[in-house]
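Researcher: Re-running this chain for the archive, since the previous output was lost when a drive failed. Same request as before.
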Amino acid sequence: MWTTTIPTYAHQYDYLIHSLLALSASHLHALTAGPIDEQNISVFHRPCASSPDAVLHRTHAIQSLANAIAQPTNSAAELAARIATALALTFQSSYFRDGLSDYFIFVRGTNLLFQNAVEVGMDDRFHGFRYEEHLERVSGWLRDAPTSMVNHQVLKAAQESLEGLDKWCTTDEERIYWRLLNKVVELAFHLPIDAYQAFVMLYTTPSTFTEAAFTHLITAHNMTGQLLLAHFVAIQQILTPILMHERLEDFANGRVFPQTAFESWVEVIWENLQALDRNENRSWRKYMAWPMRAVKIEFKNLFPPTMEDARVIENG
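Model: Regenerated structure tokens:
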């Protein structure tokens, strides 16, 4: 759909074409910036970066999309174009070191646009955007996969890091998100389909919060929110053995993905927490120790020792 239907539509919507150009510029720059050791790098590990063109097109796309959203529409095709734009901007946010807040903002915006599209009716040409179809497609790929797909030692370390973090939660929304993080990790031990479906809720649930509660969760000034988001980023990384099933067809075709800024996001959160900790009580540091380690775990070590998938993917 991204290489067929959407490009044929892009010239009709200024915001869509600029979002695609922005994403393409970031993607291309990440693939070509700097020397790469092809012998010691997996499909998930390439330098992340951006370019002036990427930022320029991104700015234009955001401004144009904001102007369009100010004008309600009942056009299924235009709603699909708006969703595609929000998704492209979400994907592009993953290339920016300071892109975590933008990432969640555009995820929330995408989900709100989806709700609008459901009410109006989704254009059949964009059926791939339907939430239920996406879940069913990925779940179908996972049905034949082993029940234990993620290294249990890695999952246990995640559980230990999350333990006690609920005591830092001061709002219902923070507690909801903490419980979701725990649920995803627990399910990942033996129920990959359920774990994937719960993981998707880490994206969709904040969209159900009020704007004030959502903003409080993602702001760099909220220490608890920063700790929760650090665990979200780390859990997304360690679930790679499950999440990579979203891209199995791309892997089969030999496509290489640039590294995202996820590791940098955890580093930025550490910096934010240090700035917030004016009294230097440093009690938050024990909750950051695991996320800092998790985003650096070698790709093959995310899998159970008996699984061959890591070698298959790394060797193409």
